Amino acid sequence: MPFQPVNAARLSEAVVEQIELLILRGVLRPGERLPAERELAERMGVSRPSLREALGALQEKGLLEARAGAGVFVAEGLRSVFPPALVKLFAGHREAVADYIGFRRDLEGQAAERAAVRGTEGDHAVIAAALAAMEEAHGRRSTPEEEAELDAGFHMAILEAAHNVVLLHMMRAMFGLLREGVFYNRQIMFRNQPTRERLLAQHREIAAAVLARDPGAARAAVEAHLDFVEQALAEQVKAEAHEAVARQRLER
């Protein structure tokens, strides 16, 4: 973690400001454990009492939480911006899926444009590594669960490279709901071999455009990818409906 020594008249306030910025910029993520108190105090160049004062202030703000015997963590509550009742509403209505994909198409297309232009060399290295992990998993025929998780990691790498903190936190919350299966079961798509092949090819195209710093191509590649996801989901729903009808006929 990129903690830096602080230099201010009120050390605890400087510590608070630095950790707040790391959370805001997405460097420190919900559920992530901070280094042990001694190590963190040394890395930030402050006394342990000053550090404790800062961590206490951050806990009061709801940004950190202490777990007995485990340490201090970034608050889990920062993962979602949606109240539980709204999450249940999303999960109970299929029309939310189309809206979700449309929302992603707009925001991730914009993020890919920004990542192509504003992403640092380090950001682009992370994107390339995320694609390489997908290639490796695909080559050894990993589980659909692993491939789905790597897929989410690839998209988050592009969102992080866009350097827009509001966009980053909003999309992290949206991907959190996707991981929980609120909108659809993304693992199902990775169980179909032709679909797996096309998804990987689409991710290659997205990465190639971003790494080539071609914002127009990056946005178009993301939009084409999500159009395919929407079509694949529609075909999946249709197939499930046909199977249900066939089962009903057999039971008669």
Reconstruct the topology from this structure.
Blueprint: H1 11-24, H2 37-44, H3 48-60, E1 64-67, E2 71-74, H4 84-91, H5 95-118, H6 121-139, H7 144-161, H8 165-179, H9 193-211, H10 215-251
Antiparallel strand pairs: 1-2
Helix pairs in contact: 1-3, 2-3, 5-7, 5-9, 5-10, 6-7, 6-9, 7-8, 9-10
Number of strands: 2
Largest sheet: 2 strands, antiparallel
Average of the residue pLDDT scores: 88
State the distance separating the first and last CA atoms. Answer: 62 Å
Largest sheet: spatial strand order = 1-2
Percentage beta strand: under 5%
Summarize this entry quickly:
With 252 residues, this protein is mainly alpha-helical.
Structure notes:
The structure is a single chain. This protein is mainly alpha-helical and 252 residues long. The protein contains ten helices and two strands, in the order αααββααααααα. Strands 1-2 form a two-stranded antiparallel sheet. A hairpin with a 3-residue loop joins strand 1 and strand 2. Helix 2 packs across helix 3. The mean pLDDT is 88.
